[in-house]
Amino acid sequence: MSANSSNTAAALALIADDMREVDAVIDRRLKTEVSLVSQVAQYIIAAGGKRLRPSLLLLMCGALGYRGDQRHNLAAVVEFIHTATLLHDDVVDESTLRRGRPTANEAFGNPASVLVGDFLHSRAFQMMVDAGDMRVMQTLAEATNVIAEGEVQQLMNTHDASLDEAGYLRVIRSKTAKLFEASARLAALLAQSSPAVEQSCADYGQALGTAFQVIDDVLDYDGDVAEMGKNLGDDLREGKVTLPLIIAMQRGTELERTTIRQAIETGGTDQMMQIIAIVQQTGALQATRAAAAAEAQRALNALQALPQNPYSNALEQLASQLLARRS
């Protein structure tokens, strides 16, 4: 195990007992008389993943001193919402591999994946009512709506080689970072924190989520396939314009720009190795990592408003170590 993964494991060890409680909530709330719902939902949740969103909520609750049971309920809610978006995403993207095994749509078909995603969304809304807090419901309702807008905007941007960095960031702040932001804000709401602290928590979540997605987009051209559990070049195959490609087109020669533009517009991966070489030679990966580093620093700055304790120290480690991600 690398020092980086070891430090991350130490940070998450703080909430190991809490995560077991969250798993118990997830298992209990997935129970339904419709066997296919349980089968598909358990399939994707059992695949594991980083569980970053519930971990963020639990660590933030620890940092703010909130120890009530609603932290487990809402951590399960954000995981359900995230899982629902994965199910729908994989159908839209026609993905076949996630976390090293066939996607749910590959294993069970598109109709089952879409409908079980709908079930997880509606179950999440049932669960958030249990909190009995209108601000909690408002935060999660807004987050799910913004995520849906981000998904649609990304669909509209597909195969559009003219997308710029601002347009790219708008999508990932909606599609990916919004649920990180909501997870962190929920902890502040549960802890009844001041508006200033609540905003700092939300800022941390948004910045962390943005950095996470930017690094994810780097790994599509520079990752370890075995560790990532997905195929290199998936984004290009799906016609997604990400920051490494945007920067490579800005810096490359006319021929290099044309090569990338044509691949984006057609979703062709015949010249994948050439495009990876262009992305690397133009310094686009380093520039993209620098953009992620700026977001990680923004997250670290937001933590200054929180009390200093083992939980806030763990949140600091998460932001710092994100930049060493290889999967």
From TrEMBL:
<keyword id="KW-0808">Transferase</keyword>
<dbReference type="InterPro" id="IPR008949">
    <property type="entry name" value="Isoprenoid_synthase_dom_sf"/>
</dbReference>
<protein>
    <submittedName>
        <fullName>Polyprenyl synthetase family protein</fullName>
        <ecNumber>2.5.1.-</ecNumber>
    </submittedName>
</protein>
<comment type="similarity">
    <text>Belongs to the FPP/GGPP synthase family.</text>
</comment>
<dbReference type="InterPro" id="IPR000092">
    <property type="entry name" value="Polyprenyl_synt"/>
</dbReference>
<dbReference type="Pfam" id="PF00348">
    <property type="entry name" value="polyprenyl_synt"/>
</dbReference>
<dbReference type="GO" id="GO:0016740">
    <property type="term" value="F:transferase activity"/>
</dbReference>
<keyword id="KW-0460">Magnesium</keyword>
<dbReference type="InterPro" id="IPR033749">
    <property type="entry name" value="Polyprenyl_synt_CS"/>
</dbReference>
<keyword id="KW-0479">Metal-binding</keyword>
